[in-house]
Amino acid sequence: LSGLDPAQPYFQDTPIEVRLDKSDAEFVDVIHTDSAPTIPYLGFGMSPAIGHLDFYPNGGREMPGCAKNPVSQVVDLDGIWEGTRDFVACNHLRSYKYYSDSIIYPDGFLGYSCASYDVFEAGSCFPCPKEGCPNMGHFADKFKGKTKNDFTKLYLNTGEAKDFPLWRYKVTVTLSGNSKVTGYVNVALYGSDGNTRQHQIIKGTLQPDNTYTSFIDAEVNIGTVTKVKFLWNNNLINPTFPKLGAATITVQSGEDG
């Protein structure tokens, strides 16, 4: 039984006979996409974990792409009716959009078991444990019986628009050069199954011999890494023509470590 952002008003904190609960089926998975408090944030979805697996994409409260300009949202690619619904209840409706995308991407939407979204964003729950991570959506039931906790909260990030799944990588860069520079470093990943766009790893002071770590939520599952593209820019005309390179770049996949 899959709960697509189960309703908060009149249902949250009620007895289990009234609302969705893990006792309702052999396996209950839940996608929370609009769990901010109803007052004052107009959150329609409930926030507590109530299933065997509870997924909180993007933290479960505000979904990327839902803060678009109201006019552009109402005149949506999928039509005025769809756009109007998104304008009124965009976060709430993301749950079924993620679910439908999950059917097309059986390897997508990996949920990382974590204490909170902030802890997930800090990278503490990366990579997946040896038993793997469950997939949010249609294929969540592949994880049936594998959870030991009473409730398992899972976190992940999604894209702003269709196609929604993202694949998480940890990128560690050790810089080389003669002097520190202010600017930013971008990295693009190339793999056996696809390539990513450029993702920013560092912004600010770039110090040679220092090591910097960042997490990339890539728009494609690249498979086996074949190449990494490293670019840096200092945004300024510098008469000393500073040179900066990467001594090493390490890429770790969240899926299998």
From TrEMBL:
Q: So what family is this one in?
A: Belongs to the AB hydrolase superfamily. Lipase family.
Main location as per UniProt: other
Q: Which residue ranges does the record assign to the PLAT domain?
A: 167-257
The UniProt entry lists membrane topology as: Peripheral membrane protein
Q: Where in the cell is it found?
A: Cell projection, Neuron projection; Secreted; Zymogen granule membrane
Q: Which gene encodes it?
A: Pnliprp1
Q: Which InterPro entries match?
A: AB_hydrolase_fold (IPR029058), Lipase (IPR013818), PLAT/LH2_dom (IPR001024), PLAT/LH2_dom_sf (IPR036392), TAG_lipase (IPR000734)
Q: GO terms for CC?
A: extracellular space; neuron projection; zymogen granule membrane
Write the protein's name. Answer: Pancreatic lipase-related protein 2
Q: Name one GO molecular function term.
A: lipoprotein lipase activity
UniProt pathway annotation: Glycerolipid metabolism; triacylglycerol degradation; Glycolipid metabolism
Task: Give the GO biological process terms.
Answer: lipid catabolic process
Write out the catalysed reaction.
1,2,3-trioctanoylglycerol + H2O = dioctanoylglycerol + octanoate + H(+); (9Z-octadecenoyl)-glycerol + H2O = glycerol + (9Z)-octadecenoate + H(+); 1,2-dioctanoyl-3-O-[alpha-D-galactosyl-(1->6)-beta-D-galactosyl]-sn-glycerol + H2O = octanoyl-3-O-[alpha-D-galactosyl-(1->6)-beta-D-galactosyl]-sn-glycerol + octanoate + H(+); 1,2-didodecanoyl-3-O-[alpha-D-galactosyl-(1->6)-beta-D-galactosyl]-sn-glycerol + H2O = dodecanoyl-3-O-[alpha-D-galactosyl-(1->6)-beta-D-galactosyl]-sn-glycerol + dodecanoate + H(+)
Task: Please state the Enzyme Commission number of this protein.
Answer: 3.1.1.26
The entry's keywords: Cell projection, Cytoplasmic vesicle, Disulfide bond, Hydrolase, Lipid degradation, Lipid metabolism, Secreted
